[in-house]
Amino acid sequence: MSDESPWLVVGLGNPGKEYAGNRHNVGFMVADLLASRVGAKFGRAKRVQGEVAEGRLVSSGQHSGGPKLVLLKPLTYMNLSGAPVVSLSQFFKVPVSNVIAVHDELDVPFGQIRAKRGGGEGGHNGLRSMSKSLADKEYARVRFGIGRPPGRQDPADYVLSDFAGAERKELDFLVDRAADVVEAIVLEGVEWAQNKYHGG
Asked: Which top class of enzyme applies to this chain (predicted)?
């Protein structure tokens, strides 16, 4: 993996104000925070259906010259997220090993953030579209735990509902932690991020 290769961080979500606070949109929330950390602003991209921000990630002890981050919020709706991902990865010559998807995860309890590379999609339409379009599953994932729906609520309805009041009190902290995990993957690798952040 070349140090020169940029990283493509894909925040998965649905466009539109009505979806902004949904559990399904935590990827957008994390992408927004990462953009502010690298001093970048999202703008509509001409070449893809999405909003894109670019900046450099500076690690502690450095002042400049860190890895280049390309941040993407697809505007295609979740089940078509793969097309803009492929377009941008080709344009910026990003290898699949340098692609990170940030997404909500039903199979991880709320309050936990998990990093992994490759694997299945767990029924997540955004991941499914990315894997199909990239023809490769070996990209990294930052899995933002939202837990399973209570009672008999349909998971499809649950992910498209807003966080509960008690959850919202922790949300900013968890979005911040998920952004930390993304940065750790870029700077140190998935295994390092797992060792540091999987304690809780």
From this structure: hydrolase
Domain segments of the chain: what residues? Answer: 7-197
Q: What percent of the chain has pLDDT over 70?
A: 94
| Active-site residue identified among 24, 103, 124, 198 | 24
Output the six-digit token pair for 195. Answer: 């060792």
* Dihedral angle over CA of 136, 138, 142, 146, nearest 10: 60
The rounded distance, in Å, linking the Cα atoms of 198 and 194 is 5
Is 139 annotated as a binding-site member?
Answer: no
CATH architecture of 7-197: 3-Layer(aba) Sandwich (3.40)
Alpha carbon of 75 to those of 38, 82, 104, 150, 155: distances in Å? 22, 11, 17, 29, 22
Percent of the chain clearing pLDDT 90 (strictly above): 88
Please choose, from the candidates 88, 129, 87, 123, the residue with its C-alpha nearest in 3D space to the C-alpha of residue 104. Answer: 123
What pLDDT sits at residue 58? 81
The pair of three-digit structure tokens given for residue 182, joined into one six-digit string: 């993304």
pTM, entire model: 0.95
Flag whether 79 is marked binding. yes
Q: Is 14 annotated as a binding residue?
A: no
Reported as a pLDDT band with limits 50, 70 and 90, residue 198 is confident
In Å, the largest CA–CA distance within the chain is 51
Instruction: Determine contact, residues 73/51, Cβ cutoff 8 Å.
Output: yes
